[in-house]
Each structure stands twice: as C-alpha cells, then as structure tokens.
Amino acid sequence: MTALLEVTDVRKYFPVGRRRLFGGPSPSLRAVDGVSLEVERGETLGLVGETGCGKSTLARCMTRLHDLTSGRVTFDGTDISTLSRGELRPLRREMQVMFQDPYGSLNPRRRVGSIIGDPFAIHGVAEGEERKRQVQALMELVGLNPEHFNRFPAEFSGGQRQRIGIARALALKPKLVVCDEPVSALDVSIQAQIINLLAELQEQLGLTYVFITHDLSVVRHVSDRIAVMYLGKIVEIADVDGLHEHTRHPYTRALLSAAPSADPDALTGRERVVLRGDLPSPAAPPSGCRFHPRCPKARDRCLTDDPELIPRLDDGPEHRAACHFPLADGELLTLSRPAIDDVAPDLSFDPAAAEEGTTA
Amino acid sequence: MPAQQSGALLSVEDLHVSFSTADGVVRAVRGVSFSVARGRTLGIVGESGSGKSVATQTIVGLTRGARVAGRATLDGEDLLGASPEALRRIRGAKIGMIFQDPLSSLHPYYKVGWQIVEMIREHERGTSKAAARLRAVELLDAVGIPSPRTRIDSYPHEFSGGMRQRVMIAMAMALRPAVLVADEPTTALDVTVQAQVLDVMRGVQQEFGTAIVLITHDLGVVADLADDVVVMYGGQVMERAPRRELFYRNHHPYTEGLLRSLPTTAPREKGRRSKLTPISGSPPSSITPPPGCPFEPRCAYAFDKCGQKPPFREIGTAGDHESACWLPADRAERQLGTSNGPRRAQAAP
Lengths: 360, 349
Prior knowledge:
The structure holds 2 protein chains of 2 kinds. Chain A is an alpha/beta fold. Chain A has helices at 55-62, 85-92, 112-122, 128-141, 158-170, 188-205, 216-222, 240-245, 250-258, 264-269, 300-304, 351-359; strands spanning 5-15, 28-39, 44-48, 70-75, 78-79, 95-98, 176-180, 208-213, 225-230, 233-239, 320-321. Chain B is an alpha/beta fold. Chain B has an 8-stranded mixed β-sheet, with helices on both faces. Chain B is globular.
C-alpha cells in the first residue's frame, strides 16, 4: 500500500520587503525549501525544529492551507498540489489540522456544541437531532461531559478546550490529523492527559498523525519517526530510537543535547553542545550546508556544497541525514572545531518579524 | 526547615497575597516561605496559577492593589513595609529582575546601550556618561553579545529573542545586585538558545556570587540550574528539597505526579509506547480553595485527614527536606486512597 501522504520537493517562498525597481526578482523568504517525505498509514511522524525553521509552514503546505511555490503533495493517491478550492473540499474531510492555542481557535461567543458541530454543517453531513447526538458522542470520546453541550468555551479549562479542538478535528473521521504544537500551551499534568488521549484515539480510529512540536521529550514519546528541520530543510529523518542513539547530523545532536531533562544525574553525564550564534535569516540562508556557520564540524566543502538527505555511514534507507561529515556512533561533537575561515556573521534574525512577513 | 536559615540573603516568611476581583477575592499566595543564600540558586516550580510569580513579584513591590501579609527581608532589610522610594532603590541595585518576554521589558524606542546607561546613572548619581557606557559595553560582553561596542547602539528589535534576553541579564546585573529574580527566563526561547541563556546565568552567578531565584514551570530547567527547589501548588508550598533529593526521593504526591506526567526518555520496547501518568482533574480555584491540602481533590493517596491543612513534615535526617503532607515520611508506608478515597474533580480518560 502506498504512503498516505507523499511530499515531493515542496518549496514555499514568501515575498518579503519591497519589490525591486525595474523588475528583478523580488526578495523572498524561503520558509520551506525543497522538502520530501512520506507519511505512512497509522504512523506518527514527529516534525521538530526551532522557531522559524519552517515546520508549521510545511504542515500548512501538506494540507494545502498554503499554495505551494513548487513541488507536489499526494494525499491518499490524489495529487492535491494543484487542486482548486472546490476540488479540495471533499478531501478536507479526510485531513484535519489542530492548533496550539485552545483559546484563539474557539469562537468565545458560540456554544461548544455548535463549535464541534461546525464540520457537520460545513460538509452537510448530519442535521438536527442526529447532529446533536453525534456531537455528544464526540464529546464523550474525548473525555468531555456531553451535558456541557450548551456551555461557552470560557467555561472550560485549557486542557478541556484542547479536547474541544480535538473533538472538532475528529468530527468527520479524518485519515490524517496534523497537530501543530497541540500541547505546548498546557501545564505538564494536563499535557500528559492530552497526549494519552491522542494515543488512544489513534489506536481506536486508526489515525495518522503529523505531530509538530519544539518539545523534544514530547516528540520522542509520541512519534514513530522524527524529521528534524533547520532553515526550511530536513536535516535528518529516522525512527525515534535511531535518531537518538545514532544521531548523524551535528544540528540534531546539538538540539537533543540542549533539551532539558528532569533527571539531574543524566544531565551531568551527557554531552552538552551549546551552539554559537543565532539562527540565520531564512531570507538570506547561508551557502552550501545551511548549518555551516554554526557547525563545530564545518569544512570547506560545507561552504559550497549543499549535502543531500541520504543514508550515511552504515544506516539503512530509513535513516537519512543531510551532512557531508556525519557523526559516527560515540563521536563527541564538543571535541570538533570548525576548519573554515568563514567567521560566523552576526546574523540576527527576528522570528516575530518573519512571522509577520509570512502572514502579510 | 526554618525559613530563617543561617546565611539566608533573601528570606520570605508566611507570605499571603490576595486580590479583589469582580468574581471574589483571589487568594493567590497562601502562606509561603522560602529563602536563598548568596551564590545559590533556588528554583520555584509550579503550574499556571500556583502563585509562584505573584509571590516573587510581591516581594519586589510589583503587585499593586494586592493585600499582602507576612514578612520578606533582603539582607536584614524589610521589603514589604518599604516605601515606594526605598523599593525603587532596592530594585535594580539589590535585586535584578528578568522576565519571560524581554521585548516587553525593553523600551522599543531607545537603543539598548542608552537603557543600560540610564539605569546605571539613575541608581549611581555622579557616574559620568562615558564611564557608564564603558560599563555597559563590558556587561554586554560578559553576557556574550558579539561585538558589544557596536551592538550597544542597536535597538531592541534588532536583536533575536536569545540576544534580547542576554541584554536583559546584562541590564539586571548592571549594578551587581545580590539577588537575581528570573521569572520564566527561557520559556519563550528555543532549546538551543535556552541552553545559551542558562549558561550565561551560570557564568554571571559564578563571577558575582549572585543568588538566583528561578521561577519556572519547566522541571528540566530546574534540574539543570537549581541547587534547591520549592514546589508550589494552589498558592502554597508543597515540598522543599535540595535538587537531587527532590527528583529522586520526593515525598509529596503532587511532586511525584508532576514528575510522572513527564514523557520519559527511556527507549521504548518494541515500538510500543508506554502510557503517561497524568494527574487527573484540574488545579483548584484560587477563589474558593479547598479547606485542607489544595491537592486533596486530585490526590490518589487522599484520606480523611487531608481535609485539614497539613503541617510541614521533615523528610530524611539532613534537615533540608520537608513536605506539606499528612502521609508518613516513609514512602513504604503509603497506601492508595484510604477512607473516603480520592475525589476526582473530573474524569480523565
């Protein structure tokens, strides 16, 4: 059986700044710059990376909430990259998106029952009493009291609001659910409730998840495979244990080593890589490998030659990394020193400003 | 552990803070004590609404309109009874503060150097502009801002989030305060940037012997930086212990629940992911808090005694670990919900 979702060389550029006088290409921010991956049926693919790496933009491209600059997205055998809005509509039922902010994504003036019933209304599925019955069944499914059908979002806590978001996303029995930071705004004790709920629902309904987060311990817990993004590209993709135990890309190592752990003794034992400098601007990404200005292993080749995302060392085809000088098992990154003359420029990048640029 | 510990630089005793709101009186902090010594880091952890930020903001006079009771002293000097002028002098000179969002703490209209110079000259009258500027450059250099001599003339929006937080630390440390209060200093930052900022805080502490009060919801940050930890819930202190003691030999069911609800990093067995163990229910109301232990409605070990407020119980023999819980000090004697058992606030699947 083919993969549920196939993403092939997808690019998404946003125009930024002023158009140049006398034609000329307008400057663009390369939020997603040539990403290919597959999402298998029933799996959870984790997508991690730091602010501004393009993970949310990629998710919006996958579900065609954004039009693509180039590339192709195939969902369940249908190429959706060039479909019109009308042609997309029936497919929208099968792919749903869930957002971080349980406050901002619920209309405060509408009752919960009608919010969860929206997907039925939009797609004309169930009416009247039948709709109410289905909405209440959904509320029960996600652990909300069905008697709270007529309450307003403000009467629920943060965790319960996220459950409302989940109920709405699942209303039309989608195949794919893209979760964009679904637990980042929640306290840890509530976060665990939602993570468990998502896992249960996946098992029960056979869902496929794309799980976007910056929280590395959460992504490790929920994912089958993880893709690590840096400046619009995937730098490493592997199954969870492979990524953690045979980390190949220096950026992945730095990211994993910076993740806080509630285990003081484990912290003292592990390698701690503190990266130099800031994330460069995606409007003017560095040449060659985009990580080279911050990479402890950078060599001359990294300045000019953009590495391909392919299996490195003895890895199988499932574990791919975009690095000319991948880390061997047990190699310490902190012992490496870059062998390039290129002085890391002070490329200050303001994610907030970039965010504005993307919505403009 | 008595809050008035020998060598305590900042000490807070039996602090109560409440606010009048349209819905009733919000009792945000209900009898909190903690202290921190020179050169040490105290981590205060708790979830939203636990009162951790209100408690620390109150001791520096940043909670206007609140009803405050209790005692707070810095180096023997009373903080709660201090006049606004005295507090202004203390803030900055003796207590430096950094917050979660550096962009809202920096004035967008002025260059960062100007803001640091202004701060130095406001507190140390008679310092020349040139001398203050030189100090500002040194400070920016100390917190790892590249080319500080030119960056001093940049505006806040020209810095990235991590760099802005470094500027905030430089500003907070400008007058060599004895205490640095850091309220969720890295919450808005990415992990690699967080690692950089925590390193800067560690460096500053080593260099100046600063005491740090670190307020956070992130147990990982506490595990990384704190010497001692206070766990807050529902406006009260649940447990207080040295770092390793708290993570490996904790006593309070809330601390235990908090740690158990974190995703584990252990490799999974044959592709099966384990279930997390969340705490069922939601945090208590701060308008009508439970009469006894605030955690009682969600606690799996609750029994009839939990309807009364538990006293602090010594755990272990070192005298530095205590827990506000009726359960026996020895964990082996603990049993699940005796008598009326746990009253779940909400059925969690």
